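URGENT: need a sanity check before tomorrow's submission.

F., can you look over the R-spondin-3 record below? I want to be sure the sequence and structure line up before it goes out.
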Amino acid sequence: VHPNVSQGCQGGCATCSDYNGCLSCKPRLFFVLERIGMKQIGVCLSSCPSGYYGTRYPDINKCAKCKADCETCFTRNFCTKCKSGFYLYSGKCLEKCPDGLEANNHTMECTSIVHCEASEWSPWSPCTKKGKTCGFKKGNEVRVREIVQHPSARGNPCPATSESRKCIVQRKRCQKEGKGKKNREEKRKKSNKDESKETRQESKGRAVRRQNREQRENNHKTQPKKRKAPNKEQNLAPIDTAH
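Structure tokens as predicted:
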């Protein structure tokens, strides 16, 4: 072993030197050179840092630098994330997306153009005018549909979601639901009022009759008893028929 090479290293190094840091790594660790000013120092890491990708060899595992436009990569020719100003497409970083694709500024990727999709039209609604379905001859009917897929930035815009057209119906009179309901309500109240009035009158009549009966009973109790008149036939003297 070279005098400047030590085997009692720290930080995952198998061999190291005071000037160059790690020279080799322990098994399964990756060797990478870090630049400090004008000097490069070898370090051993469990995974490669951002901007590097790892390669394993029988004698050593190394971290190699990605391309200049890649922020992270799987291999040198396959990027997984691009640096600012570039869009990822099939492992490559492009300044402009190919035809048929659009740049997604949120994910910084080239994605397929998505066009708007709408559902089928609903059946036409009943013919109405000012919210009513009676009392007119000409009105309008409408139908609607829903958006099932919103478009991307370069996709075709969505169509109208509602349509209206003129319609003709056979004129018919509107039932005065409100007035009829009001009349029914008034009749019900009047009926209840009449019933209540009759009930009060009956109660009042019963009270008067009970009061009169009680008054008669009291008068009878307080009035002195009349003596019986003597029988006139008993008071008459017997007539002498002998003369």
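My own read: The first strand starts at residue 5 and ends at 6. The first helix runs from residue 177 to 222. If you see anything odd, call me.
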